[in-house]
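User: Here's a structure from my thesis project, written as structure tokens. My advisor, Dr. K., wants to see whether a designed sequence matches the one we expressed. Can you design one independently, without my sequence as a hint?
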């Protein structure tokens, strides 16, 4: 065969290959079947989800009640607010952010609450867990230990004080949310200085997260004796110390507890510490405080009672499985007065504790690990002192400081007579928390036309929802209960149909990882409520994870507690 014929043959084969690339011949019938099957799957999920939701809501429910149409009602409110501002350029930006936020919430709701997804998720998560993968919130460890993913990310990620890390957190903020203040140092130093101006000491109690102390239960590559911390933590403590801030070395205390007792300081399937480890830390904190503070008085005789508690860990609850992880049983020490009554906070105390869920875990009954046996109660028991407390399960980086600031702005001096403020927060907040500064300025109570109720007073009202705070998706956070805030306007009662007052109302929006009716409220909804004073419910509900309204003016109003009534 000549060279020319070989070249022609090679070219023809190459050309043939080129002609065939990207060309798939399929029979028209097969193509129709494949396309039909694909469209049927897409439409089937849509139809099934809506039929199930329609059946759950009731056949008399309006179309706007469906998850996919929940944002339609809020558009009327957004347009009304723009009209009040004469459609200025700034109003368009604000409106765009609100619409984007609503769209994002609707997408999350459909993704998490859709019937098909709810049926498939336990199977898929069980399969992932079998192969040691976990899910977006949970990492499985060794010997059935479970770890919260942000805790792992905190110790393995970049230093939380690294300039690139700080800027990245700001840059990654979605368009409809306000960028966080990622650097904790300015906020903590500012808090120290404001308290010092009133002659009050500040003791920071950053509680280590589980993998810092129990890293060996996550991977065999780490030694059991090692305490693993974020690379910026040492610099963080050094800079606070140089600024005169008092910082407790809780990691060293928990490591010492583990060495001396040969017990784990953390619950196996929960993010929090064990009762005995928490009690160990309160003993150490009380020693630190007694060395620095001279107390003026004491409290009535207190005693402790050992009570066993069985509960499922909060990390295990984030795994949506058909065969859930087994519950854990621990022995708690409940703190009571000599007459058997449970411990109570005292606003006249010389100690104020600001704390998160590590403070609440054995104190707030709704968390499932007993009551009156937590960090504050045991600190009071060890100090033999009354204690005032402001505690919130989530957002330990700012929530309790914000509440304290609001209390002072309302004219309630929660710092009166205080000698020390103990500020407890989880160390993961140093990387993932928002750390704005808040003024601690005592002001006169602002004038208000908001509805206010006296203790034990009940009132049934009808009103229109103007604004709703965010509600987390069940299983997306390590807290099973949630309280939502709403701005209620055009309030009327049967006795006074022309009242037209307004109120900030707190409602239970999630119980044991199940959404309540309040979680589905949207701007523009007309609702019927039974209202009572928030002070009547604060002891039971104030420690729960709660989301606030965006407006500072609304945050400064005295809230009321609400229960939705049937239409």
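Assistant: Designed independently from the structure alone:
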């Amino acid at each position: 065969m000549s060279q020319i014929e070989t070249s022609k043959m090679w070219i023809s084969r190459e050309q043939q290959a080129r002609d065939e690339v990207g060309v798939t011949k399929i029979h028209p019938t097969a193509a129709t079947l494949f396309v039909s099957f694909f469209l049927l799957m897409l439409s089937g999920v849509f139809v099934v989800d809506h039929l199930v939701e329609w059946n759950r809501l009731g056949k008399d429910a309006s179309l706007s009640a469906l998850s996919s149409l929940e944002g339609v009602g809020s558009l009327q409110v957004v347009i009304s607010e723009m009209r009040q501002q004469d459609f200025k350029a700034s109003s368009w930006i604000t409106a765009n952010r609100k619409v984007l936020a609503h769209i994002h919430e609707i997408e999350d709701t459909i993704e998490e609450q859709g019937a098909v997804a709810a049926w498939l998720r336990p199977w898929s998560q069980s399969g992932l867990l079998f192969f040691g993968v976990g899910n977006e919130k949970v990492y499985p460890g060794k010997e059935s230990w479970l770890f919260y993913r942000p805790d792992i990310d905190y110790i393995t990620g970049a230093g939380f004080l690294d300039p690139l890390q700080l800027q990245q957190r700001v840059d990654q903020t979605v368009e409809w949310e306000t960028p966080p203040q990622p650097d904790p140092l300015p906020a903590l130093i500012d808090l120290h200085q404001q308290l010092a101006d009133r002659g009050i000491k500040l003791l920071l109690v950053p509680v280590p997260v589980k993998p810092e102390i129990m890293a060996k239960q996550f991977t065999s590559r780490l030694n059991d004796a090692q305490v693993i911390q974020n690379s910026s933590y040492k610099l963080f403590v050094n800079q606070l110390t140089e600024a005169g801030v008092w910082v407790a070395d809780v990691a060293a205390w928990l490591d010492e507890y583990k060495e001396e007792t040969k017990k784990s300081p953390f619950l196996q399937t929960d993010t929090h510490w064990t009762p005995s480890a928490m009690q160990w830390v309160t003993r150490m904190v009380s020693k630190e405080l007694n060395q620095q503070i001279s107390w003026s008085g004491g409290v009535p005789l207190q005693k402790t009672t050992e009570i066993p508690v069985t509960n499922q860990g909060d990390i295990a609850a984030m795994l949506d499985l058909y065969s859930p992880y087994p519950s854990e049983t621990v022995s708690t020490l409940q703190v009571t007065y000599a007459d058997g009554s449970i411990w109570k906070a005292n606003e006249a105390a010389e100690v104020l504790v600001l704390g998160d869920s590590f403070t609440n875990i054995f104190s707030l009954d709704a968390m499932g690990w007993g009551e009156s046996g937590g960090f504050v109660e045991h600190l009071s028991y060890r100090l033999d002192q009354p204690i005032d407390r402001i505690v919130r399960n989530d957002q330990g980086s700012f929530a309790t400081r914000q509440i304290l600031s609001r209390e002072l702005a309302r004219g309630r001096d929660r710092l009166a007579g205080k000698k020390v403020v103990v500020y407890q927060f989880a160390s993961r907040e140093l990387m993932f928390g928002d750390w704005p500064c808040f003024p601690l300025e005592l002001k006169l109570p602002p004038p208000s036309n908001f509805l206010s109720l006296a203790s034990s007073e009940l009132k049934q009202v009808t009103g229109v929802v103007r604004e709703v705070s965010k509600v987390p998706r069940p299983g997306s956070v390590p807290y099973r209960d949630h309280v939502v805030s709403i701005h209620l306007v055009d309030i009327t009662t049967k006795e006074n149909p022309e009242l037209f007052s307004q109120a900030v109302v707190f409602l239970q929006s999630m119980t044991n990882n199940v959404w309540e009716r309040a979680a589905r409220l949207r701007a523009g909804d007309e609702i019927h409520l039974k209202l009572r004073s928030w002070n009547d419910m604060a002891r039971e509900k104030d420690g729960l994870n709660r989301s606030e309204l965006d407006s500072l003016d609304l945050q400064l109003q005295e809230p009321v507690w609400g229960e939705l009534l049937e239409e």
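When you compare it with your expressed construct, this may help: The first strand starts at residue 138 and ends at 140.
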